[in-house]
């Protein structure tokens, strides 16, 4: 069994580090000339798979935009997962789940156990019931060769009130989460399967509660915030410093706004992927 970290490492080598978010919100469907219904959702997903299947290493569907359509929307998400896998793309389910005990185990069974039709290569998770509450999710993912991305210092401004808070040891909550991720990945090669989410919008000088050295978690760093939230690809080296070669820049609107044609989507993904390859991939 090949670990998620190893699969991701190889996929980045072949296709580059760009992660494209799949966020079919009502406004985007309308911009594409699609109805905000299951039929529109299906057409959207088919176009995205055709455009991105040969261009990027990993994509990130936001489950909420499928859940809002009920069981029929979940069925579309299941088909999207299968189609992306067939296209050779890794899938990071953006579900941000977090709970305790049997409930977090149920989330694990849904998102990282291959017996589930919703199983992805990795899932995002919220550790703010305590990092230890995620152990069933992390353990299940690792047992099946899948991964988890733990929220640490996110790109939304509201996150600061929790993530920049300091404990009795003087460390911020975000840094404590990064410490825990590092512990899980301690012996992994070539890349750990537990990643972290750190916004590309944070200050490079540590003022946002994350020290660059603490970002050495021996795992991938998902970096949302490029484009609509104000960060630029050219900012990544300054923000992430010594771990920039482990960064997955996450972009959604900057790519998806170029739809609905397959050619325009593929061209925009290719262009941005080339830009991040030049910036991030170690020569």
Notes on the protein architecture:
The chain has 283 residues and is α/β, with parallel strands linked by helices. It has a single domain (4-280), classed as TIM Barrel, CATH 3.20.20.70. Helices cover 42% and strands 14% of the residues. It contains 12 helices and 8 strands. It has helices at residues 4-15, 26-31, 38-52, 64-67, 70-86, 101-111, 135-143, 160-163, 173-184, 236-240, 253-256, 262-280; strands at 19-22, 58-61, 90-97, 122-125, 147-153, 194-198, 221-223, 247-251. An 8-stranded parallel beta barrel has the order 1-2-3-4-5-6-7-8, surrounded by 6 helices. β4 (122-125), α7 (135-143) and β5 (147-153) form a beta-alpha-beta unit. α3 (38-52) runs parallel beside α5 (70-86). It is globular and about 55 Å long. The model has no long low-confidence stretch (mean pLDDT 95). Belongs to the OMP decarboxylase family. Type 2 subfamily. It is an enzyme of class 4 (lyase). The active site is at residue 96. This is Orotidine 5'-phosphate decarboxylase. Its EC number is 4.1.1.23.
Radius of gyration, CA atoms, in whole angstroms: 18 Å
Q: Helix fraction?
A: 40-55%
Strand content: 5-15%
Mean pLDDT: 95
CATH topology: TIM Barrel
User: What is the makeup of the main sheet?
Assistant: 8 strands, parallel, barrel
How would the global form be characterised? globular
- Estimate nothing, just give the exact number of structural domains: 1
SSE pattern: HEHHEHHEHEHEHHEEHEHH
Low-confidence stretches: none
User: Would you identify the CATH architecture?
Assistant: Alpha-Beta Barrel
Enumerate how many helices there are, as a single number. 12
